[in-house]
């Protein structure tokens, strides 16, 4: 066994500038502290960072770009350099942030210099060993996580999920939405600012672009309709506008130029046009071929009438005369969609051609299958809509908007959700906004005091009565206010069904995807399931009858695919020229496989036998 000797640190400190060796120094540690002091007195740029590695006896001076740096308050001998006198001067607008950086009160550290620092979260924790103090403890989080209330009470995966879902929430994404033509946009009818919010939320002034509503939430099971993350919602709350949004979708078309000098034309197509869709499809178009605003349109209705020149310059008509025929290439609503034409914009595209944008508006009322989420990664799908008279209610006749399953809390360790419920209730009763900032927010004790003063139980539990029977529910139920967001996974945008429809040109199998009116995939595992059940006729129906069944002629002599000679009206084998041909039902994909095998110079033969 070979013993490895630990490399002894050199006597002299190696100095690195942006990773390049520039020399040595007898005492790197003292040099690092002197350089830092010079940076604080503005003799060195405040963008320079100094990192001393004691194990390897190396001093790294970093000035390169691309480093992520964070501001900290400098601490000396256990005392913050940001003294009460300086704070008074800041409040009087005598000093600003840049002054503090120049005075050496605040300095920016990068990831490497942070290794040499000992940071305190709050001033009360300072000891003589500390080198820096956080400007604000919630700065540990980024912008999105900083907006979430009580993140320090939740497990980290839930915070990650809450951040992801905050980006999917529907609210007011921009205040000038009326003048914009975004491809797809959602605007909430009655957005609210949360009752429990953070300092970062207030700093960003996010209440101007709110993306949710405060709901009265009861934590209890409800006849099994909120199992496995489902949520029971008060139908009457939805009728009053809870989480209601308007969806705006923009369709656009342009008069394109073609190489032969020809051009598309936006107009009302006439019956002479090739591919004319019938009068019904064009019923909402004005004389200029563009739809009228506030028209109620449904799937496949034309929004902008457009004709294109023929693909070939001259086309021979039925009677043999040479003529140019226009093609129909109108812009129409996608199948399965409906709405009202909100507005129409006629302008010029980048190439100078006429461009028309049509914005269609539709109201999306929450329904079973839509997704809601709190700011703690607790997402759920609406499982049942219950009229208000059938919902449980408190002695003060408060009816919850949402009934959430209590099983969603303990295993996910989202204590922040419970704290927000309590805080939201206290805020609603006290008529004030609560602070849920990380490490510095309002405490449980403060909420309990407000609830006590208003005659409620400290723990937020209440006796509820069953709306169906009128009897008192035996268990006390935790009820309060939580900020819930509606996510853009709307069931109406995902719903898809098909009986017959388009097929692919190559395989003759149904197309794929909702956008192309595709079929639903019946995969290998589904097939295995039917084999297990012995449902052979159902397999045949799914994989053949409803997919790519075709009848091919097969030569009984040589086993190759035969063809029908339309000129002589006879079936013939192209290989052996024989006429002993039989029709066989096969999948078109199998016929395609035979063709691909032939392309490899392998001759596949189909040997036929009688069924009997």
From TrEMBL:
It is found in: Cytoplasm. One of its GO terms (biological process) is DNA-templated transcription. This is DNA-directed RNA polymerase subunit beta. Coiled coil: none annotated. One of its GO terms (cellular component) is cytoplasm. DNA-dependent RNA polymerase catalyzes the transcription of DNA into RNA using the four ribonucleoside triphosphates as substrates. PROSITE patterns: RNA_POL_BETA. Belongs to the RNA polymerase beta chain family. It comes from the Archaea. Its main location: cytoplasm. Its EC number is 2.7.7.6. One of its GO terms (molecular function) is ribonucleoside binding. Signal peptide: none annotated. Keywords: Cytoplasm, DNA-binding, DNA-directed RNA polymerase, Metal-binding, Nucleotidyltransferase, Transcription, Transferase, Zinc. Pfam families: RNA_pol_Rpb2_4, RNA_pol_Rpb2_5, RNA_pol_Rpb2_6, RNA_pol_Rpb2_7. It catalyses: RNA(n) + a ribonucleoside 5'-triphosphate = RNA(n+1) + diphosphate. Residues 15-76, 97-129, 518-608 form the RNA polymerase Rpb2 domain. Part of the RNA polymerase complex. Its cofactor is Zn(2+). Residues 144-516 form the DNA-directed RNA polymerase subunit 2 hybrid-binding domain. NCBIfam families: rpoB_arch (TIGR03670).
């Amino acid at each position: 066994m070979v013993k490895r000797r630990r490399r002894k640190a050199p006597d002299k400190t190696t100095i690195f500038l942006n990773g390049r060796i520039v020399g040595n120094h007898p005492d790197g540690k003292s040099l690092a502290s002197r350089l830092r002091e010079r940076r604080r007195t503005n003799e060195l740029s405040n963008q320079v960072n100094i990192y001393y590695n004691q194990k390897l006896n190396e001093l790294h001076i970093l000035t390169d770009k691309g480093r992520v740096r964070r501001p900290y308050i400098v601490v000396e001998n256990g005392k913050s350099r940001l003294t009460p006198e300086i704070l008074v001067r800041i409040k009087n607008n005598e000093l600003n942030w840049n002054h503090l950086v120049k005075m050496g009160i605040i300095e920016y550290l990068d990831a490497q210099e942070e290794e040499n620092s000992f940071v305190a979260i709050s001033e009360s924790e300072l000891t003589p060993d500390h080198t820096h103090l956080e400007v604000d403890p919630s700065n540990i989080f980024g912008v999105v996580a900083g907006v979430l209330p009580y993140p320090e009470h939740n497990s980290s995966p839930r915070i990650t999920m809450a951040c992801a879902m905050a980006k999917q929430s529907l609210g007011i994404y921009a205040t000038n939405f009326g003048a914009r033509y975004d491809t797809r946009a959602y605007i909430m009818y009655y957005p609210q600012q949360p009752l429990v919010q953070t300092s970062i939320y207030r700093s960003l002034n996010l209440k101007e672009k709110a993306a949710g509503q405060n709901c009265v939430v009861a934590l209890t099971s409800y006849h099994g309709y909120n199992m496995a993350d489902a949520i029971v919602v008060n139908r009457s709350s939805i009728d009053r506008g809870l989480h209601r949004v308007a969806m705006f979708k923009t369709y656009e078309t342009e008069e394109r130029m073609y190489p032969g000098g020809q051009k598309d034309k936006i107009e009302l197509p006439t019956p002479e046009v090739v591919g004319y869709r019938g009068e019904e499809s064009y019923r909402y178009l004005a004389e200029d071929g563009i739809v009228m605003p506030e028209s109620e349109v449904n799937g496949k209705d034309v929004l902008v009438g457009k004709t294109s020149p023929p693909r070939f310059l001259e086309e021979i008509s039925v009677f043999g005369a040479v003529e140019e025929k226009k093609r129909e290439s109108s812009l129409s609503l996608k199948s399965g969609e409906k709405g009202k034409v909100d507005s129409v914009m006629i302008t010029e595209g980048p190439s100078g051609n006429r461009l028309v944008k049509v914005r269609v508006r539709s109201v999306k009322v929450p329904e079973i299958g839509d997704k809601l989420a709190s700011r703690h990664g607790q997402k759920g799908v609406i499982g049942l809509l219950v009229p208000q008279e059938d919902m449980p209610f408190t002695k003060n006749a408060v009816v919850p908007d949402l009934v959430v399953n209590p099983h969603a809390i303990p295993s996910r360790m989202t204590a922040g959700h419970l704290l927000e419920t309590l805080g939201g209730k206290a805020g609603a009763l006290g008529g004030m906004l609560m602070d849920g900032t990380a490490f510095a927010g309002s405490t449980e004790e403060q909420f309990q005091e407000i609830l006590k003063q208003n005659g409620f139980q400290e723990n937020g539990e209440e006796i509820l009565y069953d709306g169906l029977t009128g009897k008192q529910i035996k268990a006390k139920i935790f009820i309060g206010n939580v900020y819930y967001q509606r996510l853009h996974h709307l069931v109406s945008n995902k719903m898809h069904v098909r009986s017959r429809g388009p097929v692919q040109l190559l395989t003759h199998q149904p197309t794929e995807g909702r956008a192309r009116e595709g079929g639903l995939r019946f995969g290998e595992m589904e097939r295995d399931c039917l084999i297990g059940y012995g449902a052979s006729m159902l397999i045949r129906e799914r994989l053949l009858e409803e997919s790519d069944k075709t009848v091919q002629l097969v030569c009984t002599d040589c086993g190759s695919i035969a063809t029908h000679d339309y000129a002589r009206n006879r079936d013939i084998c192209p290989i052996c020229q024989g006429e002993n041909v039989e029709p066989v039902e096969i999948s078109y994909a199998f016929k395609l496989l035979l063709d691909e095998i032939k392309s490899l110079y392998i001759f596949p033969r189909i040997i036929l036998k009688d069924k009997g």
